[in-house]
Specification:
Helix 1 packs across helix 4 and helix 2 crosses helix 4. The chain is built from four helices and two strands. The protein is mainly alpha-helical. It has a single domain, classed as Response regulator (Rossmann fold, 3-Layer(aba) Sandwich), CATH 3.40.50.2300. It has a two-stranded parallel ribbon. It starts with a helix and ends with a helix.
Length: 122
């Protein structure tokens, strides 16, 4: 969701990539939540951070505590940023409760990205 929001809100100001330390595939709940706000992430794919190990990275943003603790150190990373969001995929509630959590986290991510962009890092 973070990649989708940053691409949507920042346009071409950033070359955005997203990856995980234990990618398990694109979550349908994320696709559905983002589609509700008009952002199509269905074409995104789940990637491992190793795909970007040799690329220059200016910002590394982790979006959950587990990712922060297992994220590799990036040589040349100008700034490391951590945002702690709940992992909606880990929720074991009913389908409707899961949708509500995906929506809440989607909106929290959007707010964090808007704040990031407003701080003028680009």
């Amino acid at each position: 969701m973070a990649e989708g929001w940053l691409r949507h809100l920042a346009g071409d100001r950033y070359d955005v990539c997203s990856a995980g330390t234990q990618p398990v595939g694109l979550n349908p709940g994320s696709v559905e939540a983002m589609a509700e706000v008009g952002i199509d992430i269905a074409h995104h794919r789940s990637k491992h951070v190793a795909e970007y190990a040799t690329q220059p990275i200016d910002y590394v943003i982790t979006v959950c505590n587990r990712a922060k603790e297992s994220c590799p150190r990036w040589s040349g990373a100008v700034r490391l940023i951590h945002w702690s969001f709940d992992d909606p995929a880990a929720v074991t509630e009913s389908a409707e409760q899961r949708r509500q959590i995906f929506r809440r986290v989607r909106d929290e991510i959007a707010a964090a990205i808007r704040e990031f962009l407003a701080s003028g890092p680009a």
